[in-house]
Amino acid sequence: MKRCYYCFLSGLIIFVFGCAHTPGSSDLPQHVRRISVQHFMDQTGHSIVSRKLTEQVVKEFLYDKRMAVVNPESADALLLGKITKYILEPLSFDESYIPEEYKLWIWVDIGFKDMVSNKILWVEKRMAAEVRYFVTPRKGGNFLTEEEAQEIVIKLLAEDIVKRTIDGWFAASGISEKK
Fold it and tell me: What's the pTM value of the predicted model, to 2 decimals?
């Protein structure tokens, strides 16, 4: 009985680790080692957010170190994106109906183009990140400004975009269309 248990456990461990995604594996073609990140277009009227998101995506690629960030002329691949929604939704109000809590939600559409083969490798629509925050002090809790909430959402989006680009469709949320 004990031997059966160890055989089952060994098989389960081999199955789990055999199916796991390894950091070196990727959906990227082998020749893609240098990327250019184009300025994110803005469809929301929050152009400062598009600038900050572009800068943060570049920082995340540099931090990750698996792909060099270069100008478009030297790139093997091009990352294109646009901010499609910026939603600031009040969630709770005080007794005077003044908002106390908000949810900031930003959606982006991104695409990844292989510059060597001149093909779009994938498009991901409606990749989103959100944060809930209070604008007034709460008992034992912190509060944020809208700008601070933007920074949090931008960081989350940039991390997801880099994971999606390097590690594949399963590494981040959204709706992917592999080309």
Answer: 0.78
